[in-house]
Every structure is written in structure tokens, then in C-alpha cells.
Design goal:
The chain has helices at 13-28, 37-61, 68-85. By secondary structure, the protein is mostly helical.
Amino acid sequence: MQAQCLSLDGRTRSARLVRSMAQAFTADLGGAAHMTASKRQMVQRLSAASVMARQWEDSYAAGGHFDRLAYTALLSEIRQTYDLLGLCRGQPNNERA
């Protein structure tokens, strides 16, 4: 069975952005060959959450509804995932050491 990315049609802009971000994060972590399955899943979730935050920001900029609490919680989750993966500047990635 083939895994689906958030049940998104792979041709949508959102799906392309999630894929692009996942590829960039994977490269930042030294490539998929150097990552555990759990890290690859975290990268996938981080990518999806990052695209979601961007969509909310775009909607807000266009005058749309903005749930500040949900947005703040999402940003907190994104930041925690950055930390867990070692993607924050100045933070060494333990797997690379």
C-alpha cells in the first residue's frame, strides 16, 4: 500500500509545497539515507504543519479569519519539531556528530 501525504492530491499546490519542504528539511539533515523512519515521519509532519501555517498567514493577509490560539499552538509544535530534529541554528544535530 502506498503512503498518502495528508490525503492530498499530489498535484495541488499544497502537496507540492509539502514535498518541497520535506526535501529541503531532509537535505538539511544529511539525506534520507542518514535518517531513521521516525525522523522521516517527523520531517513529513513538520513540512505539512509549515505549509498549514503559511496558508493561515496568507489567509490572514488577505483579510480572512485568523484563529490566533490555533496558530500559536501550531507555531509551538513547529518549533518543538525543529528542536527535536536539530534544525535550529546553533543547535548541533546529534546524529551528525
